[in-house]
């Protein structure tokens, strides 16, 4: 298999039941995103992964902390508002895209315990009228914390942060595959089709609008590029001739590979490899010291990336709970 189809992007990051039953009011939670906010300086102070700091992932003891700090900063930059809760925890809220869990969740760099996480989720997410509870742990969670979250109805998913030192070993080239840099409106055509047909068959129009529309926030976290492959023989009413795409975010001499996807009908043709090679080349041209990504710990794409020079550098967790209508109504009326 040549092309990872990571579920990380579209399983825990959306609300399956549509919009919350009443209009969400985020006014009381709005906080201007600025570097002098409490706790934010700690996030941005340890994210240097540039070429001068590059090397073997196995010989860099601080790499996991810097990768986690980079991902933490990315999540904050893409949210409309955030509330710092001490030095290692933030509540993210984005009223424009309430169905995107990654934009509306509790973000942590240290494990405060399940009770505190549940309280924060109820206070900030419940207080905003949302019917989900979502925790992004950019750190390891203790056994006791995970057990208590599961007892409280959360589903936990382990994820891996992976990194590849640049330039690294050369990747294979695929001259027969035409990879092109495309604009945002173009790549959204294919992503809309992927949501409706492959990511979540039966997904309603509002969910598709939000889950593709949230891409508006991605350039807030750095230079954002999208690569695509076309099939001239294809003429789909939604995606035209697009069959594959890859997203690349570059900031602070770090390149994040994300959103790699190919239509199921066109897999096995090295499109993923060709786009990855193009993205790595662009990262090297921009002076990046590392390419990083996130993969589900228990799914096959991590092994696909390992064969292409990426190594696990640390495990993280996401915890998700969707409330029933009755429970959500109780929280919204408090």
Structure, described:
There is one protein chain. The protein has two domains: 7-161 and 317-332, no CATH class; 179-311, Gcn5-related N-acetyltransferase (GNAT) (Aminopeptidase), CATH 3.40.630.30. An eleven-stranded mixed beta sheet has the order 1-2-3-4-11-5-10-9-8-7-6, sandwiched between helices. With 334 residues, the chain is α+β, with helices and mostly antiparallel strands. Helix 5 crosses helix 6. The radius of gyration is 20 Å and the shape is globular. Strand 3 (105-108), helix 3 (114-126) and strand 4 (132-137) form a beta-alpha-beta unit. The model is unreliable at 1-40 and 326-334 (pLDDT under 50). The protein is 29% helix and 24% strand.
